[in-house]
Amino acid sequence: MTYPSYEEVQNIRSELKEVGYQYWLHHDLFTWQWWVLLIASILPWMIWGYLIKRSTAYIYLRLLCQWVSFRVF
Fold first, then answer.
1. How far is residue 39's CA from residue 37's CA, in Å, rounded to a whole number?
2. Taking the complete model, does pTM exceed 0.70, yes or no?
3. How far are the Cα atoms of 5, 9, 11, 16 from residue 2, in angstroms, in the given order?
4. Are 34 and 28 in contact (CB under 8 A)?
5. What whole-number distance in Å separates Cα of residue 11 and Cα of residue 62?
6. Cα 44–Cα 34–Cα 70 angle in degrees, nearest 5
7. What is the SS3 assignment for the chain?
8. What is the arithmetic mean of pLDDT over 35-47?
């Protein structure tokens, strides 16, 4: 039994990545489920921003930004 070379494995991985991307591009992107997920991720933030007072919103937004920057860096 012979094992594939490193170049062959890399070529197959590259092809698999391209096939997965093409599938996502033609079958998942901009479907009605995609739009529902997009709206479901944005709408709560819009409702939250509309319902709370502006001064309170800035405090929460600042805390969120600090938390995200702490997690990323």
1. 5
2. no
3. 9, 13, 17, 22
4. yes
5. 46
6. 50
7. CCCCCHHHHHHHHHHHHHHHHHHHHHHHCCCHHHHHHHHHHHHHHHHHHHHCCHHHHHHHHHHHHHHHHHHHC
8. 92
